[in-house]
Design goal:
Helices cover 27% and strands 14% of the residues. By secondary structure, the protein is an alpha/beta fold. The chain binds alpha-D-glucopyranose. The site of alpha-D-glucopyranose has 9 residues, from loops. Belongs to the glycosyl hydrolase 13 family.
């Protein structure tokens, strides 16, 4: 490994953060479910890859009604995947390897097994226990006609005309953020993990939390039409949610270095800087590249807009192509533009057929583009292997609540959550021990080709490309500026401080290389050795003299 890792209070500004979805990363105890000991054991993979930090999706006690985003207790580890002692050992090992740790905080809702929710149900209407959640009385049907994120109504009946609000699954009751207990308890949770050495927090659905259901409430149709005024929506992206984050910032700043936070805030772009401000969470996810087609105009516009937005908040942008909620980008790029991913998954990935070679070519080109941008790069486990989506999981094995709640019309997110292949053979491709139980979601036979072991043995593999790209990035990374340069039609070229030039050819024919020494190529040998032109659908990094 070369170059210093990000350090100091600003370590996150241009960090490469690797998302671990713990139940599908590595299974040390052989029960078919990934665990914390598995993560600790696989730290060498992260070090060899060259990332700066790990973002760990929820590992808290949970019935897994929503893959762990239904949290029974925010200050403990799910006994199915480890213990607090194993958590501490993992933090120590990550830090010893020079890696930071960001954990997921899920503040909009708890699970329905949380002691406070159980107490609320037991205590009955009008009780102080019920005040911590959002209960409403409505004798004739749900209080509103709102649709929950995974389908079905947002209100669940509990008898006698009482209902509770859940923006996601019924097993995820929404907290009442007007309640001081809820505010205090979350700050206690942040301190609990910060005290254990956690370096930062990823804030789940940061745009929800605060609510005002007192006024006349809009219908689902009005919400979808976008006619509800910004900032005063009954539950979404309310101005007053930032009071919560200003208060959290005071907690983060009590630590040295201050703890970082990144908001998952799915809001109109111009509202994003509020979440990323230094008085608030400090950084906000931008999913615009993930949502863009492989298209030069779209990529360039997304970069220009997001660099401006991040600057206006005094923050840096975040770049994402895949995560645990989305069809993997190698598969997205393998499909004709405009393909409905929902329909494609329902057809088990047969209509249309994916052009896998094209998907992988574009995915690597987009990754090299992303890794050359100023700001933080968030990588999702398995993308360093070029892993495609497992599109043909049968309905009976699906775990995502979307499948059931949509009555089998939307498959959901399991296809990107299939446990990783570490070795090319064995019952779970090295995800668990040889004598362990099968992985909790079935791995297809073709996973063998994408195994870490197989790719380590291949100098032209996607893994070799990611390792080379991250090592080069560390050597080349300097200031946060970016300047677009003139380029032929269909090619986007930009320069970073120190003469680091990134050129992406979105067309299918080769174009001349930019001048300078090629130091990375997304196609062929990652070093770019012998490259005489910039092939179609590929990216190079070039180092310009002086
Ligand atoms: C976020 C998570 C997603 C989860 C949802 C509810 O969007 O990324 O996985 O289902 O929040 O917590």
């Amino acid at each position: 490994m070369t170059g210093p890792r990000a350090s100091g209070a600003d370590w996150w500004r241009q960090a490469v953060v690797y998302q671990v979805y713990p139940r599908s990363f590595a299974d040390a105890n052989g029960d078919g479910l990934g665990d914390l000991a598995g993560i600790t054991r696989r730290i060498p993979h992260l070090v060899d890859l060259g990332v700066d930090a790990v973002w760990l999706s929820p590992f808290y006690p949970s019935a897994l009604a929503d893959g762990g985003y239904d949290v029974d207790d925010h200050r403990d580890v799910d006994p199915k995947i480890g213990t607090l002692a194993e958590f501490d050992a993992m933090v120590e090992a990550l830090h010893a390897a020079g890696l930071k740790l960001v954990v997921d905080i899920v503040p909009n809702h708890s699970s329905d097994r949380h002691p406070w929710f159980r107490a609320a149900l037991a205590a009955g209407p009008g009780s102080p226990e019920r005040e911590r959640y959002v209960f409403r009385h409505s004798a004739d049907g749900p209080p509103t006609d709102w649709t929950a994120s995974f389908g079905g109504p947002t209100w669940e009946p509990v008898g006698d005309g009482w209902w509770y609000l859940h923006m996601f699954a019924p097993e995820q009751p929404d907290w009442n953020w007007d309640h001081p207990d809820v505010r205090e308890d979350h700050e206690r949770t942040l301190r609990f993990w910060a005290d254990r050495g956690v370096d930062g927090f990823r804030i789940d659905v940061a745009h929800y939390l605060t609510k005002d259901l007192t006024g006349p409430l809009p219908t689902q149709a009005e919400i979808e039409a976008g006619t509800v005024p910004e900032g005063t929506h009954p539950f979404n992206d309310r101005d007053d949610v930032h009071e919560v984050y200003r208060s959290w910032r005071k907690v983060f700043d009590q630590y040295d270095p201050p703890r970082m936070a990144v908001a998952e805030a799915v809001v109109p772009t111009h509202r994003r800087p509020r979440y990323a401000s230094a008085e608030g969470l400090g950084q906000a996810f931008n999913f615009d590249l993930l949502e863009a087609d492989f298209d030069p105009g779209q990529f360039r516009a997304v970069v220009e807009q997001n660099l401006d937005l991040a600057r206006s908040a005094g923050s840096t942008s975040t770049w994402v192509l895949s995560n645990h909620d989305q069809v993997r980008h190698t598969s997205r790029y393998a499909l004709p533009t405009g393909t409905s991913l929902t329909a494609w998954l329902l057809s088990d990935g047969t209509e249309p057929r994916a052009d896998e070679a094209c998907g992988l070519r574009r995915a690597r080109a987009a990754t090299a583009f992303l890794l050359a941008l100023p700001g933080s790069a968030y990588l999702y486990q398995g993308e360093e292997l070029g892993l495609p989506e497992v599109a043909d999981l049968p309905g009976v094995v699906l775990q995502d609540p979307t499948w059931i709640r949509s009555l089998g019309t939307t498959k959901g997110r399991d296809g990107c959550r299939v446990p990783l292949p570490w070795s090319a053979s064995g019952p779970s491709f090295g995800f668990g021990p040889e004598d362990g139980r099968p992985a909790h979601l079935p791995q297809p036979p073709w996973f063998a080709r994408y195994a870490v072991e197989a790719e380590e043995a291949d100098a032209g593999s996607t893994l070799a490309f990611y390792r080379a790209a991250l090592a080069r990035r560390r050597e080349l990374l300097g200031g946060e500026d970016l300047e677009f340069l003139d380029s032929p039609e269909g090619v986007v070229v930009f320069e970073r401080p120190g003469g680091w030039v990134c050129a992406t050819n979105f067309t299918t024919s080769a174009v001349p290389l930019p001048s300078g020494e090629v130091v990375l190529s997304s196609s062929g040998d990652p070093s770019g050795v012998g490259l005489t032109e910039l092939p179609g659908e590929s990216t190079v990094w070039v180092q310009r003299a002086g």
